[in-house]
Amino acid sequence: TATVDMRDESSVKQLVPEVLDRHGRIDGLINNAGIAPAGKFATQDPEVWKDVMTVNVIAPMMLAQAAGRQMIEQGAGRIVNIASTTGVRGKPYLVPYSTSKGAVVRFTEALAAEWASKNVQVNCIAPGAFVTEAQKAVTESPELYAKRIAKIPMKRMADPAEIVPLTCLLVSPLSSFTTGAIFVIDGGESGKL
Fold this sequence. Notes:
Elements: H1 9-23, E1 28-31, H2 46-74, E2 77-82, H3 85-88, H4 95-115, E3 120-127, H5 136-139, H6 142-149, H7 164-170, E4 182-185
Parallel strand pairs: 1-2, 2-3, 3-4
């Protein structure tokens, strides 16, 4: 396990060599980065866009490229990109975030097609409403929480631990014929479109 500051390009570039020095190989990469500044698109500073795209798109692509080269050399590997349901269907006041996570979804599909013959599986998980620090304003307000879960058929938000089993499956040999898939975990909310 290793972590990196996704805003720092040199830190991103150093991660794969550091992991290889410690472990000698890379079997899996889980790209789980995201910042989601809310705001009105018409007045949003372009620097916000640059920051969101750096953290949510460019750094994960750099990590996938570096780790993927090693996986190809090893003859196998698995990459799991964490997107969001807002990357599958946009959300108002989260235009940069929605756009960036949509890019992660398309990146997953394109890279999976390119690396499938190299035995590197690339998949994506698109979580919906999870109880995280980013959702603190919602989870700490009974009124906002009630409004939020009213949109979810399961009538609750997910615990972050609920994403773990699928993530583990996707980085394990049990998913050897799964690539290019986008797994939506949202308590049925997206089925209500």
